[in-house]
Amino acid sequence: MNHSYEILNHIEEGIMVVDADLKVHFWNRWLAIYTKRPVEKTVGAPLDELFPEVDGPLLRRKIKSALSVRVPSCFFNLRTGWFFKIPYRKLTGSPFRHMQQNVTIYPLSQEEGLTILLVQDQTALKEAQHRLQDFTTMEEEQRTFVTDKLTGLVNRV
Q1: Residue 26 burial (CB < 10 Å; 0-12/13-18/19+)?
Q2: pLDDT tens, per residue, the chain with 157 residues
Q3: Angle (nearest 5°) at CA 84 between 79 and 90
Q4: Which of 86, 104, 122, 140 would be 100's cystine partner, CB 3.0–4.6 Å?
């Protein structure tokens, strides 16, 4: 392993270095633990072959774009909310079966086509948003229950 990447193993977020063909050059400890894919079996392999759920063509375009403009870019799946299909189990219950993730693509080397992909666990934030949405819906239902729909006046309670 490249010693300049060693510190990245101590960060509590997923960090990988991939090239424009999605070949993995670095895979940190967080990713190894949560994806259950050890470094030895990940480095050197194409990301979209290791994880078929990753939209390879779209990710390649996003990487190419980030490298050409030299600006970080966000990548996430609006439909599922996750990049990797990491099971999420919480003792108190959760509306999500998989860890919700946000991925940021940072251009590293345009010549080599290398980028850093930062994978952040967004599940707690998404759970809070979900609870807030449920609370808002419940408030609206309660308001509807005590308010006359035709006149908008408060019903007798």
Answers
A1: buried
A2: 566 778 889 999 999 999 999 999 999 999 999 999 999 999 999 999 999 999 999 999 999 999 999 999 888 777 788 888 888 877 667 777 888 888 999 999 888 999 999 999 888 788 887 777 755 555 555 556 667 767 777 776 5
A3: 85
A4: 122
Cβ neighbors of 87 (< 8 A, separation 6 or more) are: 97, 98, 99
Assessment of whether the complete model's pTM goes beyond 0.90: no
120 close to 101: Cβ distance less than 8 angstroms: yes
- Burial of residue 27 (number of CB atoms within 10 Å: 0-12, 13-18, 19+): buried
H helical segments located in the chain: 29-35, 39-42, 47-50, 56-69, 123-146
Query: In this structure, what token pair is assigned to residue 127?
Result: 């759970």
Q: Which residues contact 122 (CB under 8 A, 6 or more apart)?
A: 81, 100, 101, 102
